[in-house]
Design brief:
binds guanosine-5'-monophosphate, five-stranded parallel beta sheet, inorganic pyrophosphatase (n-terminal core), alpha/beta, 2 domains, six-stranded mixed beta sheet, binds manganese (II) ion, Diaminopimelate Epimerase, Chain A, domain 1, 11 strands
């Protein structure tokens, strides 16, 4: 139970007392990051707080599949985040996940770190980290209820989006009876679940299909290590007209390879490095592989940055062979 977290009362007190609260989720946000951010912002506004919500990318652009979320128009650019005494970091396993907002967050009197990633380095002055929680959205729901916020359809839509995406539509091991009860409570608030599913999981642009084709064409299987990988280059994105923020789902198709337990997707960055997304079906902790290379994440879904595909593949194979 999150309420039993040692810093919970301190977090509640800080949120109750602050008139102005800055909120940020991790860079390149996913459904849980965005859903948690917007739900907390909406809920705090309902009890009279002024909130400013963003994340540390420049520019801040909402990925197309999440533009349906209530109140996305209230998000501000990172550079427009005003100074505040209280800063809340959401779904960030480490302080550097705040990107360009990290310095500002660390300078605040109170930095509340709300997260569920194993290995969270407790970078806040108040740390509400529960690795048993299905999602950061689950923690935010607990906080809002304790603050006396009446959940409404908009808040529930944001929270449900966080839970449904981080549990892979209730398929992963982080989904348990409690998670489904929580989802049921949200659905009872008239959350448009089929519309969310359509927007988030079934609304790929045709050009995304072409990108997926390229990526699958060059996928490589290392059968001895039950490892499959592929990569996406900036040239692929330019040719197909797909944005980097729409490439998150490529790994989901690759990971469904029956002959592999571990999947990696390498994404070329503007600085020439590659972001690596790692997924495991269970026997291997990709979280520890990512952490040993300066990244982080969960045991079965993690990420880090490397210089090129060949070295990245070697790093992963070495870990799988040891
Ligand atoms: P994804 O592959 O979807 O980008 O990330 C998978 C998981 O690993 C997510 O929970 C994400 O927050 C986490 N993650 C990805 N990259 C990093 C990183 O560089 N550092 C840390 N701490 N976590 C990461
Ligand atoms: Mn999450």
């Amino acid at each position: 139970m999150s309420h039993a977290l040692p810093d919970w009362p301190e977090g509640m007190r800080a949120l109750r007392e602050a008139p102005v609260i800055a909120l940020a989720c991790h860079v390149n946000p996913d459904g849980d990051a965005l859903g948690s951010l917007l739900a907390l912002s909406l809920g705090l506004r309902k009890i009279g707080k002024t909130t400013h919500a963003s994340w540390g990318c420049d520019p801040v652009t909402v990925p197309p599949s999440y533009r349906f979320l209530p109140c996305v128009e209230s998000l501000v650019q990172a550079r427009d985040m005003p100074e505040s005494e209280v800063f809340v970091a959401l779904d960030c396993g480490a302080g550097d996940r705040l990107g360009v907002l990290e310095d500002q967050a660390r300078k605040c009197k109170t930095l509340i770190n709300i997260d569920h990633h194993p290995g969270n380095d407790c970078f806040g002055t108040v740390n509400l980290v529960d690795t048993e929680a299905s999602s950061t959205a689950e923690l935010v729901m607990g906080l809002l209820l304790d603050l006396g916020v009446q959940l409404d359809r908009d808040i529930a839509t944001c929270l449900y989006t966080g839970v449904v995406t981080d549990t892979g539509r209730f398929q992963y091991g982080n989904s348990n009876p409690g998670t489904l009860r929580l989802a049921a409570e949200l659905l009872a608030l008239d959350v448009p679940a089929p519309a969310i599913a359509l927007e988030v999981f079934e609304s790929n642009q045709f050009s995304y299909m072409k990108l997926l084709g390229r990526v699958l064409e060059r996928a490589t299987l290392v059968p001895e290590e039950r490892f499959v990988y592929s990569w996406v280059s900036l040239e692929d994105l330019a040719t197909t007209g797909i944005g980097m923020d729409e490439t998150d789902k490529l790994i989901d198709t690759l990971r469904s390879t029956r002959d592999a337990d571990v999947a990696a997707m390498f994404k070329e960055q503007a600085d020439g490095n590659y972001r690596v997304s790692l997924r495991s079906k269970g026997p291997v902790s990709v979280g520890s592989i990512a952490r040993s290379h300066g990244g982080g994440g969960h045991e079965l879904a993690a990420g880090y940055t490397t210089t090129d595909v060949a070295s990245g593949v070697e790093q992963i194979l070495e870990a799988l062979r040891s």
